[in-house]
Structures are given as C-alpha cells and as structure tokens.
Design a protein that fits this description.
The protein is an alpha/beta fold. It is built from 12 helices and 8 strands.
C-alpha cells in the first residue's frame, strides 16, 4: 500500500486572514445587550484552541440586528483580547451600497484586518451592479476585502465570471464561499489568485483539497480544535485522518447548520450548555428549545477525542 505523500511545496494560495476562521457568535447579556466581556473570553478561547482568524459581525454574529456602534465596539474589544494572535475580519455588508461603504471605511479604524462584504440583498441587482457595488466598497476600504457569496440568503449570487473580474481589484483578496456550486468554485480557483474559504462546514475538507485557503466555520464556535485538526491532518499528508475527522464532525455539523434552525440559534444553544459566553439571540430569531439543546450536546459529547 502506498502511503500518503506529503508535498514539499504547496500550490495553495496564501491565506490572507489565516486558515481556520470561526464565524463567531456575538454574545449578549441576559437582557440582550452586547456582552463585550463575554466576547473577549470567547474569542480568546477560540484562538487558544486553533482558530487563527475570527469573523465578527457576520451571519452567525447576528449582524442584521446589531447597530453600527455595537459592531465597532465588538471589533475593538476582540482585538484587545486576541492581539496579533488572530486575524479579525468584520462583516460590513448591507443592502445599501452607501451604508456598506461607510462601514468598510470605519472597519480598519476599529481594528479589523479585513472586511466581509455580502452581495446586496432583497433588491437582487444584476451582475454589473453587483460588481460595481463591490468595487465601490473596496475603493473605500483601508483593509482587504473578502467577498461573501451566499445566494440562499441574499437572493443573488456572485457569478464566477464576476468573481474573476473582481479579482483584478487590489483590495479584493478572498471569498467566503456558501454558493454550493463546486464547479463555479473550481473555475474561480483555476482562474484567479483569490483566497477561497469554505463557508459551509460540510465543505471544509473538500474545498481545501482542491486549493482553498481554509474555512470560515460556524461549527468552530463549539469545536475549534476539531475543525483545525481536519486541515492540519491534510497539511501533514494524512488524508485518511483528515477524512476521518471531517466525517466525525458531520453529525454535529448537520445538527448545527443542516437543521431548520439558523446556525446562530444552534451555536448559542450549544455554547450555553458548554458554559461558554453566548446569551440569547435577538428577535426575530427565537432560542432553541431544551430538546434541541439536548440533541446538540449529545452530538458534541459523541465526538471522538483528538
């Protein structure tokens, strides 16, 4: 039997924001206020267990229901907690180009290393307008831009051809990929130097194996070390171990991101059971019920030790 080969050189695009990024929840107090102390403790916990990047104010971070001021305060607090031990990417995407430009321009001042910019939602702009939106935001930003392709939420995807054109902008450097279009992803990987990050936890190993830079993981809120171990095993040439780890995490991935509940709801329910900072979700979301939380904890506890 031939043993897995450990490559001496890697064709992988350098990871501008790290390799294992957690799409971090935003902790709130019992009354629903921003819990900056909890955010600092959670961020430090995630970084100590293998995350070299954190995405704040994203989908899992409940960005639609936090204010601009709260977003900036969260970035500043987490930067204070983790220092230079992790890259910080902050979500600045809105349905309004002018508002997004304002948030992007302020992100670097708050301490972010990059901005995550989602396709404008609800208005469903055509591709030339999508491209113009991203260019305007990138022009205004003092830090690099990660495009966020999640058509299931926005109603509009960033087509591969649009990605390829946008890759020419010097500040557009990365993509969080929730497109569920592997062929499209491969086309952009083959045609650009954009750093691709798997945004769906079931795709972490699959996309990393074809050249992605890493992942932006919701499941990493609860099991950062397991997510980091998948990529570490692949980097070490142990593809069998990487596959084993990806499959082992699958039941928890399904429970957290494949159910009817948003990942924000399930992540906060599980973190609460684990005694980690989380707090309630903000309306219109509703908290998970006890049975759901019990099921999440059972799948967490069934994970094999690393």
């Amino acid at each position: 039997m031939t043993s897995p080969r450990t490559p001496t050189t890697s064709p992988r695009t350098p990871s501008p924001f790290g390799r294992v990024l957690c799409a971090m929840i935003t902790p709130f107090t019992g009354s629903g206020a921003l819990d900056l102390d909890g955010a600092q403790r959670l961020a430090a916990h995630l970084v100590a267990r293998g995350c070299d990047g954190l995405v704040l104010n994203g989908t899992t971070g409940e960005s639609p229901t936090t204010t601009d001021e709260e977003k900036a305060r969260l970035v500043a607090a987490v930067r204070e907690a983790v220092g230079d031990r992790a890259a910080l990417v902050t979500g600045v995407g809105t349905a309004d180009t002018r508002h997004t430009v304002e948030l992007a321009a302020a992100a670097g001042k708050a301490g972010a290393d990059g901005v995550l910019v989602v396709t404008p939602y609800y208005s469903r702009p055509p591709q030339d307008a999508v491209a113009a939106h991203f260019r305007q935001v990138a022009d205004a930003s003092e830090v690099p831009v990660m495009l966020y392709d999640i058509p299931g939420r926005t109603g509009t995807r960033i087509e591969p051809e649009t990605m390829i054109r946008l890759a020419a902008h010097p500040r557009i450097v990365a993509v969080k990929d929730c497109s569920y279009d592997v062929l499209g992803t491969l086309k952009v990987l083959a045609g650009t130097d954009l750093a691709y990050y798997a945004g769906c936890d079931e795709h972490v190993l699959a996309l990393y194996a074809v050249g992605a830079a890493g992942c932006v993981s919701t499941v990493a809120n609860a099991v950062p070390a397991h997510v980091a171990a998948i990529l570490a095993a692949f980097d070490a040439g142990d593809t069998a171990r990487a596959t084993e780890l990806q499959l082992a995490v699958t039941p928890l991935t399904e429970a957290m991101t494949g159910a009817d509940l948003p990942g924000t709801v399930t992540a906060k329910a599980l973190l609460t059971r684990l005694g980690l900072p989380a707090g309630p979700v903000r309306a219109p979301l509703l908290p998970a019920g006890p049975e759901t939380a019990d099921g999440l904890l059972a799948r967490y506890e069934a994970l094999p030790a690393l």
